[in-house]
Structures are given as C-alpha cells and as structure tokens.
Design brief:
Elements: H1 2-45, H2 61-66, H3 70-101, H4 108-116, H5 123-134, H6 140-147, H7 159-187, H8 191-199, H9 204-215, H10 217-232, H11 236-241, H12 253-262, H13 267-292
Helix pairs in contact: 1-13, 3-7, 3-10, 3-12, 4-7, 5-7, 7-10, 10-13, 12-13
C-alpha cells in the first residue's frame, strides 16, 4: 500500500515537472537570443558608445534626444501606416486560401506547396524579385504595359505606389506561412458542427460566419499578433526593394535604427531607439490581447 502511494506521488511529481521540461529548450533560446541582448541593449542605451572604446554613461540623454528626433517619429508613423494597411490582408488572404485548400479537392497538396513556397524565400530575395517585376525601366510590368501601347509607370518614384509595391511584396511573401497556420486551425474544428448546420439548412456562408470564424478566433488572434510584429520590424525586403525611398516615404523604423547604428556609428543612441520600439510593440500587443480577450472563444 505504501509502495503504491509512493509510486503515485512520484508520478504526480513527474507530471508537474514534465511541462517545464518541455518548455526548457524554448526558454533557453529566449534567454540567450532575446532576453540577454535586450538587457545589453538597455545598458548600451544609457551610453554614447559608438561601437569601439569604453562605454561612457550618459544617463537618459539618448531618450531625451529621441523624443526630439522628428525623423525617428516619421519612420514610426510610416511603419504604422504600412502595418495597418497590410495586416487585414495578411489575415484575410491566408484565411481565404486555407478555407479553399482545407477541402478535399484534386491537387490540394500541390497548391498548398505553391502558396507556401514564397514564405521560404529570404526577404532580400523577395525584394530583388519585386524590383525586377516593378522596376521603372527594366521591370516586367512596365514592359508589358509598353507592349500594349501604354506608358510605363514610375512605381518607385512615387510614395504611394512605392508603398503599395512594398505591401504587395509583403503579403505575397508571408501569406503561405499564415495559410498553413489557418489550415491547422480549421482542421481542429469538429465536423459535427457543420453536419448539424447542414441539417438545419445553413448555407456555406452562414456556416463560415457562425461556426468557422468564432471557433477560429484563437488562430486568427495568433496570426494578427505574429503578422503585426513581423510587419513592424520589416527591414530586408524594404532595403532591397526601395531602400526607404522615394524621399524616405518607405523608410521604416528598423531601417532608421540600422542607419543610426551602422552608418553613423551611434550604437548607444540606436539602442535607445530599439528600446522605445520594443516598448511600442509590447504595448500594442497587450492592447490586442485586451481587445481580443487573448483569442478566447466566446461561449
């Protein structure tokens, strides 16, 4: 009897410890590659370090300086505009693709692979690809327009069209990844809900609105959080596609921070900018958690 109780207590202790063992690798990666660099970044933000030499402590001077840095706040505003326009499409298009490709149709695996493939390409390569497609003088789009008797469009010399190209490239490169996420969420929905709806005579649209969207709320919330963070820290694609032009209209926050750090060698100031960007992302993420109730499905 005592042995049975002892064995039961050991198993209970193992069950309590097991979840922590499962998250230990992720916790280790988070600590080494995120938490520790963040701590160092905060320390550097309190100095005027330029990349070489000793760290000279200057307190909150960098933070006072950035609040008067109009170029930084302009880059934040442009990043907001880009993210707010692109995010709804980053959610809607993958959801549409997932809804079609979760069905048992011919060639389903092939089409899933085709739509997922762009998400495996580096942002640098995506930028170069869309530069080739929309280039002002050598782009494929302008070539087709001129062949049909039209006038070529200067995509990258106009702020609105340049931003539009960046948004299109971002959606094309990330839709496949979020499509797979939505497919996973759709496959977790019990088919009995749809069977009952069909018995009641509900149309496909009514089933999508009344069953799919509510039960897919946790997945949608996850996509929104990941998509927003991904868009807000966009750098490689924009660098190769527009390099922040024209006249800085597509220069986003991360590119501005990079330039201050590695072109002007103001690593202390760039660290302060990074800390502010981190706080902005954290606050916006918490707001999304609050508004969406953490993605919880309503009863």
């Amino acid at each position: 009897m005592k042995n049975a109780k002892r064995k039961g207590s050991i198993q209970s202790a193992e069950m309590k410890v097991f979840p922590y063992l499962m998250i230990l690798p992720n916790l280790f990666i988070f600590t080494i590659f995120i938490a520790v660099p963040a701590v160092f970044g905060f320390v550097y933000s309190l100095t005027d370090w330029g990349g070489l030499g000793n760290l000279n402590f200057i307190g909150l001077s960098n933070y006072v300086k950035l609040f008067h840095d109009s170029y930084f706040w302009t880059s934040i505003r442009q990043t907001f505009i880009y993210a707010i326009i692109a995010l709804p499409m980053i959610v809607a298009i993958p959801l549409l693709l997932a809804t079609m490709l979760v069905k048992n149709i011919r060639g389903r695996s092939f089409f899933r692979a085709v739509f997922y493939w762009p998400s495996m390409i580096s942002y640098i390569v995506v930028g170069l690809l869309f530069q080739f497609i929309f280039g002002d003088s050598t782009g494929v789009i302008n070539y087709l327009i001129t062949q049909m008797g039209g006038t070529s469009v200067n995509w990258f010399t106009n702020g609105v069209s340049a931003m539009a190209v960046v948004i299109i490239a971002s959606i094309w490169s990330r839709s496949g990844f979020y499509m797979v996420t939505f497919i996973s969420g759709l496959m977790s929905i019990d088919e009995t809900y749809y069977e009952a709806a069909e018995v009641d005579g509900a149309s496909n649209l009514r089933q999508f609105i009344s069953i799919t969207l509510p039960l897919l709320k946790p997945t949608t919330f996850l996509v929104m959080i990941l998509g927003f963070i991904d868009l807000f820290k966009q750098y490689g694609l924009v660098l190769t596609l527009t390099n922040g032009g024209p006249a800085g209209t597509t220069k986003f926050a991360v590119q501005y921070i990079y330039e201050r750090a590695f072109q002007k060698f103001e690593l202390g100031y760039a660290s302060a900018l990074s800390m502010v960007l981190l706080v902005i992302l954290a606050v916006l993420t918490l707001v999304q958690f609050k508004v969406n109730k953490g993605g919880a499905v309503n009863d």
